[in-house]
Amino acid sequence: MNNVELITNSLPMESPIGIKDDLCEIAVTTFFKELTTMTTYKEWELFQPTETHQMLRETLSQFVKDQVEPQALEYDRKELFNLNLFRKLGDLGLLGITVPEEYGGSGMDALAAVIAHEELSSSDPGFCLAYLAHSMLSVNNLAINGSEEQKKKWLPGLCSGQLVGAMAMSEPAVGTDVLGMASTAVREGTHYKLNGRKMWITNGVIDEKGTPADFVWTYAKTGERNGRPLISTFVVEKGMKGYQVGQKIRDKCGMRASNTAELVFEDCMIPVANLVGGEGQSTTHMMRNLELERLTLAAMSIGIARRSIEIMNRYSHEREAFGKPLNYFGQIQQYIANSYAEFKSAKCYVYDVARRMNLEREGGRVDSDGAKLVATTMAKNVADRAIQVLGGYGYVGEYVVERLWRDSKLLEIGGGTLEAHQKNITRDLTKEPGLILR
Fold first, then answer.
1. Which residues belong to the active site?
2. Looking at residue 384, what is its pLDDT?
């Protein structure tokens, strides 16, 4: 006799109206099914739910220790992008982490992308930002929105690291207000003539010689419809006449290990074949990719916070004051405990959003915005507390946390400002209150 029979036989055989209560057996059967599911769910790991995810984290953790950490301070100080190290990410299959294998990618999911950004940012957020601009803003954009011909042409080189990609949206006078961009592309026969300037472009320049990015996912106006600008997407390639680097942006507060540039397009002739989709389809392209961009920026914040907590926890245990370790004192305990709790809360949010994200379509903006809104400010605050715990040592580059603190600030601005996230979330909840219960 099984468990279902044992329990159902002990229940009353008839309901109050004299009919055998089959619902009892159904209820008990459902209970045991849920019990089995619960056991499986208890064993499930949110942060690496499969062996593949676990192997990715272990591989990256070792790579970061052996290859990324030794160069991080030097490249930050010199404001240099480590192109050789970047190309090693291609050898690991990371540059096309979300790209189908048929195009040279690894065919992994959003959660894998989150793992990659957390691990890299725990050591060198600046280097990780260059990785994000390439793999998320350029490569994933092409993989999701490009035509079959476009994917076959560019994805293999982008996934291997032979080509370095960038995305050009912001302009000297336009940031969040995308529809206000001034860059224009006018069709002339078999080409579009592109004119305009793009600003704050990560990977826009790849070396100190002024070499521009090989592949730039570029947005420009191609006209108007019903009084609204039509924004279209183009692929600009290195070597196209009229495409050049205006300047490398120097003396940044943080993220100095990634290159930031102004790009100039002056009568740049782009083949019609380099138009992605049709004219006016950029909004769709942006929405499909923006959720992953914001999620991985949030993941960078998780890496920054994790490293900051590791450093201040170790330091507070080893350093003594008044004959006691620093973590004996309530003020220091508050910094560490609050940081840990906020970090774990944000990490759970980020990974839960990643678990549910579908890379093929948009629809989760409220939580990709929410995860970034929470995680970025959390990371900045945690890094700030780490500096406070380390005192004078926290204020110098050798002890890492001052660099993490400087790097963290950009994450509250890039990929959508905090204010933009607050606006988006409020609008989405007003339109769909049921999201609160989801």
1. 293
2. 98
